[in-house]
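Pilot study result, target chain (297 residues):
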Amino acid sequence: MNNFTPKGTFTALITPLTNKGEVDFKRLRNLIDFQIENGVDGIVVCATTGESATLTIKEKQAIIIKAVELARGRVPVIAGTGTNETELSLNMTIFAKEHGASACLLVAPYYNKPNQKGLYEHFRLIAQHVDIPIILYNVPGRTGVNISAETQIRLANDCPNIVATKEASGNLSQIMQIIASAPKHFAVLSGDDALTLPIIALGGKGVVSVISNYAPKEFSDLVRLALQNKFEKARQIHYQLLELMELNFIEPNPIPVKYIMSLLGFTKEVYRLPLLPLTNDKKKILKQAFEKIRQNT
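Predicted structure:
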């Protein structure tokens, strides 16, 4: 297993698409360079913000290969390899390791709604067969199932290469239980930008972030300051960015963040159905908030 450290700001990268709806690998290069130049600690590809649900297996594999190539070892590349099928998730995780990913992000199996034993066995099987750092991804609002604190702690204790969880349950009580009881090698990363500061204050180690797509320096500074216990300065940045953190979910992610990235020239405003672009009134709200932040930072 490599020396990946689950700490800091990891950008859940959008997937740029051409006007024809194909993956735009030329723009992917610019995106990755922009992230690295602005101080993020790693990038995550083929996850929710990357529209993983509508990417084909071949597209995901091509993105993983290209992202590793473009990052050139400057930051870790975390590959989203989780699906609702254990065997496919395992095969994707094996592929990611073989092609240079530093770690894998495994979402809870969606739609199937497995019980806690099923969740445990799903993640345990993958961890036992692939010697790569694994980050659990708990997002009940998307998957329909919550990975309980007890299950996450059990997995952390039983599988040394399960090194972190991306907690997007929004349940601070559960998050505190995990932080308090998990082994030392296991980190809690916020899965909600707006909860990053409180989660770090409680003992979390960072974030898998949406807003860092277009505010990588600012949000990385916030996380770095918080991890250094410089909470007054971190809090100032938090409140500067809070409106945008919330507006990023004015429509399902990644619709809003991709709109802002299109304003910056990093992608076309292209999505795959069933996702559609923002309406003009919501674009206006988001653009005004974004321009106000740019003027004040």
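One observation from the pilot: The chain has one domain: 8-229. A full batch analysis is planned for the follow-on phase.
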